[in-house]
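Query structure, 201 tokens:
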């Protein structure tokens, strides 16, 4: 069975690179919400368009993750590797869309007209989505770097399988809840628009 050549320079630095990439990711998100970075001014219609694109990207990423999980359980390592790599690439696309949307455009809030129970469910799902997104980042990066830097036989002597299960489960749940909250916000009960505090460029 042919497999991709692992990235050997990463092999001895998985822990350090995991920490570095996780910190960079957290700083990008925190800096965007904190107004530390300049973004182009994005109109409300632009925010709508980016929101639709993000939902599509997250749906595709979820499909890739579920397929990758299915394939590794059936011993199809190459397909698993490609699916998980594609899911990670899609998450990078998500960041490219999401950060300017928030930093240069703004965010939406569920409309006051939504029933109390719906609003409560929405906020609970949104909170879990945000929490899992943050918690999943280091385990996703760690599992990915192990997969890139080790051969399938070498991975058996690492924590890739155990960490990968946690990463995939938390990642899938986060993405699904993100798409559900998107549907509630954009296609069910309506929303209000909150412009970004700082828009530059």
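Result returned for the query:
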């Amino acid at each position: 069975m042919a497999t991709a050549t692992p990235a050997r320079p990463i092999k001895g630095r998985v822990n350090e690179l995991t920490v570095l990439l996780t910190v960079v990711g957290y700083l990008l998100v925190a800096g965007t919400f904190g107004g530390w970075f300049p973004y182009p001014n994005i109109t409300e219609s632009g925010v709508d368009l980016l929101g639709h694109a993000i939902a599509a990207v997250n749906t595709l990423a979820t499909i890739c993750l579920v397929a990758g999980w299915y394939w590794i359980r059936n011993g199809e390592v190459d397909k698993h590797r490609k699916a998980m790599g594609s899911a990670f690439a899609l998450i990078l696309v998500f960041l490219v869309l999401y950060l300017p949307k928030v930093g240069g455009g703004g965010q939406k809030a569920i409309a006051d007209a939504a029933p109390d129970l719906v609003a409560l469910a929405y906020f609970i799902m949104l909170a879990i989505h945000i929490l899992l997104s943050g918690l999943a980042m280091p385990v996703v990066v760690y599992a990915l770097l192990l997969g890139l830097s080790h051969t399938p036989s070498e991975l058996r002597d690492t924590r890739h399988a155990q960490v990968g299960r946690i990463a995939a489960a938390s990642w899938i749940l986060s993405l699904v809840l993100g798409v559900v909250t998107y549907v509630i916000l954009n296609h069910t009960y309506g929303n209000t628009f909150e412009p970004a505090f700082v828009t530059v460029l």
